[in-house]
């Protein structure tokens, strides 16, 4: 098994508040890794550090080593746009651009100087299980799609750039059960090509889709392993309590 | 008893609110009716397409209409780029420190400065120091200064309405900060920015005090509108016809006609602002 993405001894603080403490994680290639834990445990912060989303926060302090294969993600020699092209992201709330469905996919390709003809757009939308639903309305504003369709459009937008890793920050938390199942099927399908890291609050979801699971609590990784082991045989009392819904 | 008391107090509350609203509307309607009633008689194609004649007791108001259009254009050319870019800097780039907060507070305060002060400032800076003389350009720049704080404030508010998740969406596909702002943030904020710009310009078009010392003329005979010369403008023409003219009674119908045209111009500008908002809302949903 090849490690695609990793963090070692990662410490992140915002102003005086330390959010991550000595976190080390590894995401294997073509696997789905879930990050679970109660709100405020730092799982989203960890996820967003991989595509340098914290660069926007002037008082964020990041120490430790983050690597995409052997490349240092925070190296001064690598442009941040290159990192974000190789590590895509899907957000908690679907955030399509205020543009047409077509342009939502084409925009990322354009600014990265990649080909963006119709066949490329079609391929990305097909890969995100959306093509059949929108093929006749490509010029329609993306805002008119349903919530679930918008989130699949955001996945298509990420996929279109042929990233190596896709980070997903609670991608189903704002969706109904039917849309959620569709997206889960899509994620399982995507792992053949991409390495996926997903933050989720839904224990069933983690069990349904994740190969590996990290349990985090108050900025630290408490337990990790194959998803089945974590859920059926948690070593820590805290993990056990959390997955059984004692606290959350 | 308790029940009656409640009912009485709610009637009083309701009555007070409705009453004050009605009183405000009453005066508004009276003003507009008065101007329409007395101005409509002078209104004709002839009135808006011919220049003032015979010491402004006859003829139309073409010259001040041209002046108002030109000065509004100069105001727009100056205040829109500066105002919008400044707002983009403040909202998207500036760090939230004491300097930024001071600049922002200063801009908010500037929008409260009386317009006559802008007129005096324009006289000192543009007319005298920069040697532009009393001219279209000096008055246009003065009105531009007056408009800046409004354009900055409304643009900043429009940018603030754009959620951070929209910015993150663009960054996450590899857009630079500049591309994010240019391609995603500004297009989303355009309806808000345009509405603010149009409302500000309609206000500027009706201002008298800032152009009083900086370029507005009592009377000029040609309509060419040179940028370095004095000009006639609707609000100043109205002020002058109502208070400064030697044959005040004779020119009164022209004054009301001018007032009506000015109100129509401002009304049309405001209407276009509403239309812009409506159109973009419709597109979004």
Automatic annotation (TrEMBL), chain A:
<dbReference type="GO" id="GO:0035435">
    <property type="term" value="P:phosphate ion transmembrane transport"/>
</dbReference>
<protein>
    <submittedName>
        <fullName>Phosphate ABC transporter ATP-binding protein</fullName>
    </submittedName>
</protein>
<keyword id="KW-0813">Transport</keyword>
<dbReference type="InterPro" id="IPR003439">
    <property type="entry name" value="ABC_transporter-like_ATP-bd"/>
</dbReference>
<dbReference type="GO" id="GO:0016020">
    <property type="term" value="C:membrane"/>
</dbReference>
<dbReference type="GO" id="GO:0005524">
    <property type="term" value="F:ATP binding"/>
</dbReference>
<keyword id="KW-0067">ATP-binding</keyword>
<dbReference type="GO" id="GO:0016887">
    <property type="term" value="F:ATP hydrolysis activity"/>
</dbReference>
<feature type="domain" description="ABC transporter">
    <location>
        <begin position="5"/>
        <end position="243"/>
    </location>
</feature>
<dbReference type="GO" id="GO:0005315">
    <property type="term" value="F:phosphate transmembrane transporter activity"/>
</dbReference>
<dbReference type="Pfam" id="PF00005">
    <property type="entry name" value="ABC_tran"/>
</dbReference>
<dbReference type="InterPro" id="IPR017871">
    <property type="entry name" value="ABC_transporter-like_CS"/>
</dbReference>
<keyword id="KW-0547">Nucleotide-binding</keyword>
<keyword id="KW-0592">Phosphate transport</keyword>
<dbReference type="InterPro" id="IPR003593">
    <property type="entry name" value="AAA+_ATPase"/>
</dbReference>
<dbReference type="InterPro" id="IPR005670">
    <property type="entry name" value="PstB-like"/>
</dbReference>
<dbReference type="InterPro" id="IPR027417">
    <property type="entry name" value="P-loop_NTPase"/>
</dbReference>
UniProtKB/TrEMBL annotation, chain B:
<keyword id="KW-1133">Transmembrane helix</keyword>
<feature type="transmembrane region" description="Helical">
    <location>
        <begin position="110"/>
        <end position="127"/>
    </location>
</feature>
<keyword id="KW-0813">Transport</keyword>
<dbReference type="GO" id="GO:0005886">
    <property type="term" value="C:plasma membrane"/>
</dbReference>
<keyword id="KW-0812">Transmembrane</keyword>
<dbReference type="GO" id="GO:0005315">
    <property type="term" value="F:phosphate transmembrane transporter activity"/>
</dbReference>
<feature type="domain" description="ABC transmembrane type-1">
    <location>
        <begin position="65"/>
        <end position="273"/>
    </location>
</feature>
<keyword id="KW-0472">Membrane</keyword>
<dbReference type="InterPro" id="IPR035906">
    <property type="entry name" value="MetI-like_sf"/>
</dbReference>
<comment type="similarity">
    <text>Belongs to the binding-protein-dependent transport system permease family. CysTW subfamily.</text>
</comment>
<feature type="transmembrane region" description="Helical">
    <location>
        <begin position="254"/>
        <end position="276"/>
    </location>
</feature>
<dbReference type="Pfam" id="PF00528">
    <property type="entry name" value="BPD_transp_1"/>
</dbReference>
<protein>
    <recommendedName>
        <fullName>Phosphate transport system permease protein PstA</fullName>
    </recommendedName>
</protein>
<dbReference type="InterPro" id="IPR000515">
    <property type="entry name" value="MetI-like"/>
</dbReference>
<feature type="transmembrane region" description="Helical">
    <location>
        <begin position="12"/>
        <end position="41"/>
    </location>
</feature>
<keyword id="KW-1003">Cell membrane</keyword>
<feature type="transmembrane region" description="Helical">
    <location>
        <begin position="61"/>
        <end position="90"/>
    </location>
</feature>
<dbReference type="GO" id="GO:0035435">
    <property type="term" value="P:phosphate ion transmembrane transport"/>
</dbReference>
<feature type="transmembrane region" description="Helical">
    <location>
        <begin position="133"/>
        <end position="152"/>
    </location>
</feature>
<dbReference type="InterPro" id="IPR005672">
    <property type="entry name" value="Phosphate_PstA"/>
</dbReference>
């Amino acid at each position: 098994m090849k490690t695609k993405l990793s963090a070692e001894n990662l410490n992140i603080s915002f102003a005086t508040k330390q959010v991550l403490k000595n976190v080390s994680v590894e995401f294997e290639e073509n696997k789905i890794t879930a990050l679970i834990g109660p709100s405020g445990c730092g799982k989203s912060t960890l996820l967003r550090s991989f595509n340098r989303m914290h660069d926007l926060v002037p008082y964020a302090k990041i120490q430790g080593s983050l690597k995409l294969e052997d490349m240092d993600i925070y190296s001064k020699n690598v442009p941040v746009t290159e990192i974000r092209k190789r590590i895509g992201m899907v957000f908690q709330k679907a955030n399509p651009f205020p543009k047409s469905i077509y342009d939502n996919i084409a925009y990322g390709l354009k600014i990265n100087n990649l080909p963006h003809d119709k066949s490329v757009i079609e391929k990305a939308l097909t890969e995100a299980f959306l093509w059949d639903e929108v093929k006749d309305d490509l010029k329609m504003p993306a805002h008119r799609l349903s919530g679930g369709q918008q989130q699949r459009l955001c996945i298509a937008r990420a996929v279109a750039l042929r990233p190596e890793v896709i980070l997903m920050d609670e991608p189903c938390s704002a969706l109904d059960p039917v849309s959620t199942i569709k997206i889960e099927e899509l994620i399982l399908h995507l792992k053949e090509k991409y390495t996926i890291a997903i933050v989720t609050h839904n224990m069933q979801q983690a069990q349904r889709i994740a190969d590996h699971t990290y349990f985090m609590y108050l900025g630290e990784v408490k337990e990790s392993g194959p998803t089945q082991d974590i859920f059926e045989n948690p070593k820590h009392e805290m993990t056990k309590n959390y997955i059984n819904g004692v606290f959350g | 008893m308790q029940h009656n008391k409640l009912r009485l107090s709610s009637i009083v509350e309701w009555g007070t609110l409705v009453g004050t609203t009605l009183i405000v509307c009453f005066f508004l309607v009276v003003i507009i009716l008065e101007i329409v009633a007395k101005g409509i008689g002078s209104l004709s194609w002839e009135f808006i397409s011919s220049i003032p004649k015979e010491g402004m007791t006859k003829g139309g108001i073409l010259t001040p209409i041209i002046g108002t259009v030109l000065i509004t254009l100069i105001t727009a050319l100056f205040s829109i780029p500066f105002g919008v870019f400044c707002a983009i800097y403040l909202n998207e780039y500036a760090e939230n420190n004491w300097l930024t907060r001071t600049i922002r507070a200063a801009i908010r305060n500037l929008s409260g400065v009386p317009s006559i002060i802008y007129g005096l400032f324009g006289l000192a800076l543009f007319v005298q120091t920069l040697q532009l003389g009393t001219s279209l350009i000096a008055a246009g720049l003065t009105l531009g200064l007056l408009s800046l704080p409004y354009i900055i404030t409304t643009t900043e508010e429009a940018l603030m309405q754009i959620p951070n998740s929209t910015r993150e969406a663009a960054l996450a596909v590899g857009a630079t900060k500049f591309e994010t702002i240019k391609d995603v943030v500004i297009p989303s904020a355009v309806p808000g920015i345009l509405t603010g710009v149009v409302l500000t310009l309609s206000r500027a078009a009706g201002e008298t005090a800032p152009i009083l010392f900086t370029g507005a003329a009592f009377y000029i005979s040609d309509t060419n509108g040179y940028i370095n010369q004095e000009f006639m403008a609707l609000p100043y023409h109205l002020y002058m016809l109502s208070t400064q003219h030697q044959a005040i009674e004779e020119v009164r119908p022209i004054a009301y006609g001018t007032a009506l045209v000015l109100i129509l111009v401002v009304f049309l500008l405001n209407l276009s602002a509403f239309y812009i908002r409506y159109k973009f809302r419709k597109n979004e949903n």
